[in-house]
Amino acid sequence: MDEKELSAFLDSLMQPKSEPAASPKEAVSESTAPPESLPNPTPDSIPEPLPDFISDSLPEPLGELAAPVSKREFVLGILVLLLAVVGIISLIMAGIRMGHRAKAKSSEDAALLDCIRPLVIMDMPEFSPDAPLTDDQMLSAAIWTMIVENTLPTETEQLGMCRVSTTELLRIANERFAADCAPETYRTMGSTDDLRFYYDAETASYFVPADPKVFTYTPQLRQKSYHEDGSILQLTVDYLEEYPSWKQGDPQVQKTMVFSLQNTSGNWEILSLTQQTE
Questions:
Q1: Which stretch of DSSP H or E encloses residue 209?
Q2: pLDDT of res. 28
Q3: Which 3 state secondary structure label does DSSP give 184?
């Protein structure tokens, strides 16, 4: 063996031998090795579960896309929506109208009580067209009307008295009682020295306490009804006894009176007053 052959032999020995390619069957068998042949995972290699606040916020997997809405279904949906809106608006308007009616009724009741309040305070006796009030009674009622409505003159004179002309009192009395009161003479009115209306002949006026203090009755509306023709209104009113602030207790009904009124050009006129009998 010459030198070249020996060198070639040695080089062949030093080169690594290549393994033959695996057959398809062998490759399949290796990829489907049983689980026992896989390495066991360590505790550190197992991922921890996601926190609840993250898992809850993950979106749900999308389902199948909804079928397209037909033109007919679209039109029906619009009609249903419009009907719902109309129904809601109708309910709102009905509630507003009911609120207005309740407010109007409350305002009317308050106006009626203000109309009869002077007669309740002065404990006016019964009267009717057949047994009308006297001139003094109508003038006293006119004075109490100004006191209750706070329309007395703001300027006061001696002893906290204010001056009211007889002309103004006659106007109020005639409007309130639908009468034609025209006294031939005037005189001082009042049952007690603490609450007396003094007449001044020189000025044809009355001196009236600017802030009278009296405890009499407070009206409480029990029933309101109209006659058959609707022109006459009857008010059934309870008279509650007034107490000073230092006296405790609920006001008690002392008596019940019936007022007959009519509305003339927006003005309530008192036609009669009778006591209700049980």
A1: strand 205-209
A2: 45
A3: coil
Strands 217-226 and 205-209: unpaired
- Boundaries of every domain in the chain: 110-275
Q: What are phi and psi of 239, to 5 degrees?
A: -95, 110
- Looking at this protein, which amino acid is placed at residue 33? A
Decide if 120 contacts 239 (C-beta within 8 A). Answer: yes
Tell me: the pLDDT tens digits for 101-116? Answer: 555 457 888 889 999 9
Whether the CB-CB separation of 240 and 218 falls below 8 Å is answered with yes
What residue has token string 């602030």?
A: 245
What span, in angstroms and rounded, lies between the C-alpha atoms of 132 and 128?
A: 5
Residue of 193, 87, 82, 176 lying closest to 137 (CA atoms): 176
Widest pairwise Cα distance in the chain: 176
